[in-house]
Every structure is written in C-alpha cells, then in structure tokens.
Amino acid sequence: MDVTGVLLDILVVLIAAKLAAEIAERVNMPAVVGEMIAGVVVGPSVLAFVEPNETLAVLGELGVILLLLGVGMEMDLGELGAVGRASTAVACVGVVVPMASGFLVASALGHGDNQSLFIGAALAATSVGITARVFSDLRALATVEARTVLGAAVADDVLGLVILTVVVRLVSEGSVSLFDVAGILLVAVAFLVLTAALGARFAPGFFHFLDQHARSAGTLVALALAFTLAFAELADAAQLAPIVGAFVAGLALSGSSSAERIQRELAPVGHLFIPVFFLQIGIEAQIDDFVKPEVLGIAAALFVVAVIGKLVAAVGAIGAPGDKRLIGLAMIPRGEVGLIFATIGLREGILGGNLYAALLLVVLATTLLTPPLLRWRLLQLRAEPAGRPDSTAPEPTGGWLRVDDGVVRLAVEPPSARALHVAFDAALALAGGARPDPGLLDWIGAWSSTPLRWDPQATRQLFTVLTGGDVRSWRFLETTGVLERALPELSEAVDRRRSDPFLLDPAQVLRFSLVDRIRDVEETDPEAAKEHARLEHPEWLLLAALILDTAGDDASPVELGRRLVHRLDLGAAAEQEIALLVGDSDLMRASARKVDGLVEERVYPIATHLERPERARALYLLSLALGDLDAWERERLDELYALVLELLEQPEITALETRNLVERRRAEALRLANGGARVAERIQHAPRGYLLTQDAPDIARQASLLEPLPTRGEARVSVRALDDGEWGVDVAARDRPALLATIAGVLSDHGLDILDALVATWGDGAALDSFRVRGTASRTTPPDADGIESSIVHAFDAPLESPPAPDADVRFDDHSSPWYTLCEVRSPDRRGLLHDLAAGLAGAGADVHSARLATIAGQAVDRFELTDRNGRKLDPVMQANVTRAIHGGVRRRRLPGRRR
After folding, report:
1. Residue 413 and residue 391 in contact, taking contact as beta carbons nearer than 8 Å
2. Would you say 235 and 241 are in contact if contact means Cβ atoms under 8 Å apart?
C-alpha cells in the first residue's frame, strides 16, 4: 500500500467534499448532489485526481454506517406505534407501488428478475431528509402534511431496510421461492426486533453509567462508535447488510440520557466520513454512461415510475386532513437512501454500469425536482385562506392547554387571535420532555397565514420562555413557524447560526448558552445571585444575552437589539439599556484585566458612561455569564464592579452626581482662575476626560497657560517643582502632527526622563501636553523653560523621525474604553522612548488623547488612548499600521494635517 498515495486521495476527497457541499448549499442544492458531482469531477471520468480504491471504500462504508446510526438516533421507538393510520398507509403504498411498477418496467425493458427486483427495491426507498429540509426552511414542519410525511418516514425506513436485506439475499442466492422469501424476511424482522429490544433494554443504562463515571473525554463517544460497529458486525453475521446493524444501534442509543452528547461528539466524525460515501459514488460512476441513449431511456422510464409511484402514495392519506398533492410531492426524493441501494447493487454485482448510471440519474433528478415543487405548493397553500372556522370559545379556567401523560393538548380550540399566546404557553409546557399533541400542531398550522400580534401579555410570555424554556421550547417555536412570524429578527439570526461552517453540532443552533448561564446564576454563584435579585428589569438582561447568543460576526448585536425591542414595544428606556448591554458587553471585563484598570481615573469614566447602578449591575452579571475568567480576573472584576457601584451609590455621588463631577471640577477651576473671560471660556470647553483626571488648581493654571492661544509656530512652556527632585513641565501650543513626539524628543534632548504624560486637545485646535520629569541624580536646577520652549519651536519644522523599536510589545484593546482604542507598549526603558513611540503613532495616523507612563523593573509600560483622525477607534488595519511604524521606525517625513 502506498501510504503517500492514500493520504493524497483522502486529502483530495475531503477538500472536494466540503467545497462541493458549501457551493451546493449556497445555490439551494442538496449537499448530497453537490458531493456526488464533485466525485465525478475528481474521479477518473474528468480530472482523474482519485481512482476507486479499497481505502476510500472502507472510509465510505464507515460514513454510511455513521449516516444510518444518525437516522436511528433521530428516531423515537414510540413513534413506530404512533405514526397514525395515514402515515402508515402512505408509507406502505409508497413502498409497494414503486417497487412493483419498477419491477414490471425493468422486466419489460429486458432485464432479468434479479436486476428488476433490485431496481424495484431501489425505487421504493424514500429520502425524507430533502423533504424535511424544505419543510424546515419554510417553517412548515408542524403542518399536518409534514407530520404525515415524516411519520411515514419512520415506517418507510424500517420497510426499506427489510426490503434491502431480503432483496440482497434473494438475488445473491439466486432463489426466489416463497419459502426462501419467508425465511429471509423472518430472519430480518427477528434481527431487527431482538437487537432493538436488547439494545433498548441495556444500552441506555450502560452509556449513562459511562457518562457519569468515565474520566477520559473520549471514552463515551469511542465506545458508542464501537457499539455501532459491533451491531454492524452482528448484522453481517446474520447475513444482513451492516447498515441494518448501525440503524438498530442508533435506535438503542436514542433512548440513552447521553444520546445528545453522543450525537454532538460524533457529529465532527460524521462531517468527515459521510461525504466520502457520496463522493465515492461519483468517483465510481462513468460519466460516459450518463449520455448513452440506452441509459437515458432506462432513466426516463424509471423516473416516470419513481414520480408516479410516490404521488400515488398520497391515496393512503384519503380521509385524513392535509393536502394530498403536497404529501405526494414530499414522498418523491430518493436522495441518500436511493444512493445506498444503487451502491450496494453495484458492489454485489447485481447492477451493471448502465443500470447503475440510470439509477443515479433518477436519484439526482428526483432529489433536484422535489424542493422547488414543494416550495411552490407550500406557498400556494399559504396564499389560500384558512379552511376552518375561527373559534369564539372563552378561555377555560385552567388555560387553553392541558398536559396529559406527557402530551400537551388543547383544552378547547382557542380563537386565532390567541395563537401567539398559546404557542408560548405550549413552548414552556414542552420544556423537560413533554410532546405536542397532533391536534395542537394542526391548530397552529391551520393559522400559519394569520398575522401574529404582540401585546404586553405575549411579551411577558416570551420572557417566561427565556426564563424557564429549553431547547425543545425553541425547536417547537421554530418548527411551527411561530419564531419566523413573531420574531423574524431572531429567526434570521438562528439561520445565520445554522449556516456557520464552524458550528459542528447542529443541536447547538437553538441552545442559548449565555441565556442558560444567566438563568443559572442563582445556583452557581450566590454573590452574583444577590445582585441579580436586585435588578429592576432582569428580563432586559435575558434579552441582551439572547441577542449576544444569536448575533453572528456579520450582524450588529446593537442593531438586532433595537429591532427586537421595537417589535416587542418595550419602550425607549428598554432600547437604551439593551443597546448599552450588547454594545459594551466586554467593557468591564476588559477594564478589569488592565494593570491600571482599578485606578480612579479609569473607573470614573466607566461610572460616568454607565450612569446608573442598574446598568452597572446588569453589565456585571453579563460579564460573569460570558465566562472565560481566571480567578484573578474574577477578583479584579468584582473589585471594579464594587468601585463603580460605590461611585454610583454613594449619597454624595449618586448617578446624577457622577455625571456632574465634571461640572464641579470645572466650577472650582473657574473660581481659582485669574485670566479673565478667555481663560474661563477655555475651562468651560475643556475635554471631559481631561477634567476627570486633573485637579482644579492644575486645570486653572493650565488654562491660563493656553490663553491667549499660541500661534501656529509658537509654544508656551511652564515649569514647576514637584516632590523628590521631579518637575512638572506644561506645554501649550496649537495642535499639529506629531506634537507629542516633538515635545518628548526635546525633553529627552534636554536630559530629562519623562515619568508621566497627559495630553488634552480642544475643538479650536488648542493642545496641552503636561509631563512629570526627572533629570540626572546630580542635577538640582530646574529645567530651563525658555530653552525648552525655543527647542520645541525650532523642532516644529523638523521632519518626523524615529529609530526602530523591534523589541516593543504593542497591544490594543477596544473594550476597556467606550471612546478610545487603548494601546499598551512594553519595551526596555531608555531615554527618548516616549518620543520614538509617539512618532510611530503619529506616523501611522493615530491621534493621542492621553498617555500614561510607568516603569516596572526596568521595563517601560506606556499606555495611550488613541483614535483615528476622524475621532473613531482604530480599526484592525490602523492597528497594524501602528505596530509596523513602532517596530520599523519612522524615516524622515513630514506629516500632512493638523492632528498629532
């Protein structure tokens, strides 16, 4: 065996399969068809990248075993006795008529009994996977027609497997006596009954034990797969098809409490191997056979039989409700089941190349034909008025619904205007394992064209479902079409989630993990539960969590939130609160992770932004629910929340006082200022962030320095003594490109180390750069203000330049501030470092709104608040430009524009 060749074949097959599936889904074609066509393309018929070989055959066989395992796990044994008369009759007619007519047509075309019998059997199989997908896309799974067809599928699958087993045995042994038929049928039925009964008796308990006690993450799924392969081997030993054993294994596993986990963990394996089976069908096909007149003639005759035979199946539903044409159309597709029959026939030597090609064409044609016909008929029926009179009955004392033996039923038929209320009540009643009664589904489906109207009661019921519902609740709302009709924004988000190629487990589409964690807070976190109990509107937090759960990367959660709030008519206050929660969901978490995230000047802006304790409390709980917090991060988040809440709840600093903090400092600075009207106006228009971080005496003094506003080529410098040999240097100037870099470079040239820096700009172009500096140890004289001023003015006309700083660690954070992108740069400390960093920022086109410097064990940690030239946070491209400019340095250049 050439291992390299085998690996190359697997590489080609996997890539081709997924590419084909993605393309097929985007053009509304079943993925099975796309994978078959891809097999033809990469196989010997076209590109010859892959030849049929034993390795692919084994992988394909494993894929079809996984496929039948999934079919069995999706089936409820209880449904076999509950599909109803109509579904059973449709299934029987849909098997007998195509099989008999297919046998007769094949015989009339001159084929032998064995081949004719197998062709008839292949035409008897129905693939409701295609039909179910169309019903699901149109939110019609709860209609009587869909339930009739899907119920028929339960019996159809069992009949199909029995027929496959019997036919393969008969044609392989060459005997068709009634005694042989009875014997083979008895063996097949006995195997199905005995293995299903034994599996259902012992498998659930065994796998529940494994789920509870296994320590290795892969033990459960590995033994589930081994269990499936063992049943396939048992089927083979009983001279039945291995896929029959896989189907029975699925039936046994479906009753286990671990079934959902097994399905979830097996899903990625199925994604790999199931497409190989369908791709292999295309690889083994000879494309030249498809255009032979003989093949086309056989395919045309069989196609007519296949379509008419399934349309006739609708007579089984005579006397039962539902549109008969829709039921017949839904039974047409052969899909993956027909492909399995054709492949087995080819491998057993029953079918030749021409008959195999003809069957493939029939499968393709019926699979492609059904979806548009179903859509046409469904939409046609929806355009027709409801065919039942509306009820006028009053609501019973116990409500519209009752639950009997785990089945949710209508107590009395409600008026159509109550459809939304009844649907929400039913969704809540279904949580935990109850099943909807067919009468309930019929009633909801009958009013599928009636608009659903929101009112306060329906809104309260929605929040009740969010609080007490589960996956079954949401699946009910989706399959009945209620979700699409009542909450189209949420339905669209779920559809985007379902189409996510990285969501390997389809069961997670309607599982809202963030909502679940919000709901579970009382059980998992007593301290957080206390905060949750204090919320005035816990339902708004739940809705925000739902929005974050469903909004994808291509959808704005804030916009989705606004649309949902408008639809629910929650009011402007709810819209504002929910938009803040989803828009700033990472604000507190990101701030808590910062080294200086708990200092006053960082906490005050967050408190000012949140404004009210209710917002802070909801955002804190959302931050906890988002998870992924280490112990130290949780500790800092708790501390940050306590600081914010303290600011917002202190009697002297209420939410209103927090908003007025800026005004108090401004008023104190105005009282201290001695510069007349211009200085007062400068203080009045000072930036809020600047006022939050400066004391009133500093604000008054710096405003005086800025007035009158320096001219374009002028700077004004003030020096004051601080403690421990440090000085404060304030520089007033007109804002210009690279101003911070220019001043930092001058201070470095004057032998001063910059310990801290503050940057503030005004709307009229005024700029204030304030520094805390230190000279050499031997220096006792203050910095020369005039000399620094002269050097700055001289440097204004010099081109921007800085050396590379390849060892600088540049990081960005868009969540810690509502207004700025925070940039943190760590680098070995050296004189002139701030100049080099600021030059890189300016060279990349970033505006610096503040700078904070620190030195830890010889390592400089400089933090900047940045925006682009339009005052917005830096996008990923701008962030990459900043990093590149710092690492690579800035060559001599002059910057256009007026901002730094």
Report:
1. yes
2. yes
What gap in Å lies between CA 529 and CA 525, rounded to an integer? Answer: 6
- The DSSP bridge partners found for residue 847 are 867
CB neighbours of 713 closer than 8 A, spacing ≥ 6?
Answer: 793, 796
Helix axes 178-213, 219-237, angle to 10 degrees: 170
The residue behind tokens 């004719």 is: 116
How far is 42 from 51, CA to CA, in rounded Å?
9
Q: Which residues contact 193 (CB under 8 A, 6 or more apart)?
A: none
Rounded to 5°, the CA angle 270-274-279 comes to 150
Helix/strand/coil for 6: helix
d(CA 777, CA 779): 6
pTM for this structure?
Answer: 0.59
Residue 708 CB neighbour total at 10 angstroms: 10
Q: Which residue has the tokens 């590419």?
A: 19
Contact between 613 and 648 (Cβ < 8 Å):
yes
**Contact 713/719 with Cβ under 8 angstroms?**
no
Whether residue 583 contacts residue 589, with contact meaning beta carbons closer than 8 Å, is answered with no
Of 37, 13, 8, nearest to 23 by C-alpha is 37
CA 426 centroid distance within chain: 26
Q: Is residue 264 within 8 Å of 285, Cβ to Cβ?
A: no
> Residue 36: which residues within 8 A CB-CB, separation 6 or more?
278, 279, 281, 282, 285, 339, 360, 364
Strands (DSSP E) contained in 83-162 are none
Q: Is the peptide bond before 526 cis (omega within 30 degrees of 0)?
A: no
Closest CA to 102 of 287, 346, 301: 301
For residue 377, report the phi and psi dihedrals to the nearest 5 degrees.
-70, -40
Query: How far is 114 from 196, CA to CA, in rounded Å?
Result: 30
Give phi and psi for 432, each to the nearest 5.
100, -5
Pairing state between β 890-893 and 800-802: antiparallel
CA-to-CA distance for 21 and 33, rounded, in angstroms?
Answer: 8
- Of residues 215 and 795, more confidence is placed in 795
Please compute, for residue 407, the number of CA atoms within 13 A of its CA located in the half-sphere on the CB side.
12
Summarised one tens digit per residue, pLDDT across range 640-657 is 998 888 777 755 455 455
Q: Which residue has the higher pLDDT, 788 or 221?
A: 788
DSSP alpha helix (H) spans, 27-83:
31-42, 54-74, 77-80
Place of tokens 């957080």: 528
Instruction: Name the one residue in this structure whose structure tokens are 């920022």.
Output: 841
Percent of the chain with pLDDT over 90: 17
Strand order in the sheet with 859-867: 809-813, 821-828, 859-867, 847-856
For residue 601, give the nearest of 756, 491, 798 by alpha carbon: 756
Q: How far apart are CA 820 and CA 851, in angstroms?
A: 12
Q: 204 is written with which tokens?
A: 């659930």
Neighbours of 150 (CB within 10 A): 19
How many Cα atoms occupy the beta-carbon half-sphere of 35 within 13 Å?
24
Which single residue is written with the structure tokens 């295609």?
Answer: 130
Residue 816 has pLDDT above 50, yes or no: yes
528-577 per-position pLDDT tens digit: 889 988 999 999 999 999 888 877 655 678 888 888 888 888 888 898 89
Measured between alpha carbons, how far is 185 from 165 in angstroms, rounded to an integer?
8
Question: For 687, phi and psi rounded to 5 degrees?
Answer: -60, 145
Q: Residue 798 carries which DSSP code?
A: S
- Residues contacting 592, CB < 8 A, separation 6+: 598, 633, 636, 637, 639, 640
Side chain identity at 880, as an amino acid letter? A
